[in-house]
Amino acid sequence: MCASLLRQNYIRRVFFGCVNDRFGGTGGVLNLHSDRAIDPPYTVYGGIFRNEAIMLLRRFYIQENEKAPNPRPKSNRELKRKLDDADEPTSLAPSFQTP
């Protein structure tokens, strides 16, 4: 998701499943949603169906894209079905909220 686009379009609340620790401006690398210098702030609810979201993304990224200009074969890839211990337990409660 694009944190800048969310702010520019005056989105008030964002709900998402899992955080990407390497990218992202809404709870991943940055917390642009709560930066008071950039108006308007918006509320973020993360971790909703977190484990399900992780598995959905894993299933998507294990697939090959036949329409890609130079497709890379993914024949040796396996779907990792077990979540890391850090991913447990499943919680439907928001992982963080900022007004």
UniProtKB/TrEMBL annotation:
- Per UniProt, which keywords does this protein have? Hydrolase
Which organism is this protein's natural source? Coccidioides immitis RMSCC 3703
Matching entries from PANTHER family are given as: CYTOSINE DEAMINASE FAMILY MEMBER, TRNA-SPECIFIC ADENOSINE DEAMINASE 2
Disordered: annotated segments? 66-99
Q: What is this protein called?
A: tRNA-specific adenosine deaminase subunit TAD2
SUPFAM superfamilies assigned to the protein according to its UniProt record, in alphabetical order: Cytidine deaminase-like
Determine the domain of life of the protein's source. Eukaryota
Q: Where is the composition biased (Basic and acidic residues)?
A: 66-84
Q: Does the keyword RNA-binding apply?
A: no
Alphabetically, the GO molecular function entries are:
tRNA-specific adenosine-34 deaminase activity
Keyword Hydrolase: yes or no?
A: yes
BP-aspect Gene Ontology terms: tRNA wobble adenosine to inosine editing
- List the transmembrane segments: none
* One GO cellular component, as annotated: nucleus
